[in-house]
UniProtKB/TrEMBL annotation:
InterPro entries: Cyclin-like_sf. Gene3D superfamilies: Cyclin-like (1.10.472.10). It comes from the Eukaryota. It comes from Kalanchoe fedtschenkoi. This is Uncharacterized protein.
């Protein structure tokens, strides 16, 4: 690839997000796909010591190109849709989307089917799942929960996946979810911090550090670079 892996990854993550919007999938499908692609496949490709190693050997990733990563981004959506029984996605529809979104290479139906082999499917331990669980718990016990907009939380998640800043790569999804929920509505106001740290048995300083990193991304996205 002529571009750096981080640059290509960012473009492919954007393609995945746009594809999810075009397919009108549920948030759990979208973020399960992002977790499968960005947290698992891309991490194993950029840092084999942290990945499972299985995905690197797939013949469709040799040579590694932006088009092949785009294929696996769409496969991540397909797998996530299959796990969500309410919105199955046919191979025909997926390939039609791929023909429209992937410009530099044509993949056959057989390619889409074979791309699934060797792809780990365990996506229950996702950032979205932990964030949604914390959010539902909070609105169930506190009136202030009505002030927290879940759409704002998912917008922050989109930024984290697109930029792949250090907290996104190295943090436990549970503490990252707690940090997103603890983002203050006003400066110097952390109404959820004591609750999320107690609920998750986290160190308050660790959550504060992540909150600070996330706020830098939200307030000054152009100054944040991938690590």
């Amino acid at each position: 690839m002529s571009s750096s892996f981080a640059e290509v990854r960012a473009r492919v993550v954007e393609l995945l997000i746009v594809s999810a919007e075009r397919l009108n999938v549920s948030p759990i499908v979208k973020y399960s796909a992002l977790s499968l692609f960005a947290d698992r496949l891309c991490r194993s490709l950029s840092d084999p010591a942290r990945g499972s190693g299985a995905d690197i050997d797939h013949w469709l990733l040799r040579p590694l190109t932006e088009s092949s990563l785009q294929l696996f981004a769409l496969i991540s959506l397909w797998i996530s849709c299959k796990m969500d029984n309410s919105r199955p996605l046919s191979v025909k529809r997926l390939k039609s989307l791929g023909d429209n979104m992937i410009k530099d290479q044509h993949f056959t139906t057989r390619d889409y089917i074979e791309a699934v082999s060797g792809f780990e499917i365990g996506v229950l331990n996702t950032l979205f799942a932990h964030l949604e669980n914390l959010y539902l718990q909070f609105i169930g016990i506190a009136k202030m929960g009505e002030m927290v907009k879940f759409e704002a939380c998912t917008s922050i998640m989109d930024l984290l996946y697109e930029k792949e800043i250090k907290p996104m790569r190295h943090s436990d999804p549970r503490i990252l979810a707690a940090s997103i929920l603890a983002i203050p509505k006003q400066m110097c106001e952390f109404p959820l911090l004591p609750w999320v740290t107690f609920r998750g048995c986290f160190n308050e300083d660790d959550v504060l550090k992540l909150v600070g990193d996330i706020l830098k991304l939200v307030l000054c996205p152009s100054n944040m670079k991938p690590f």
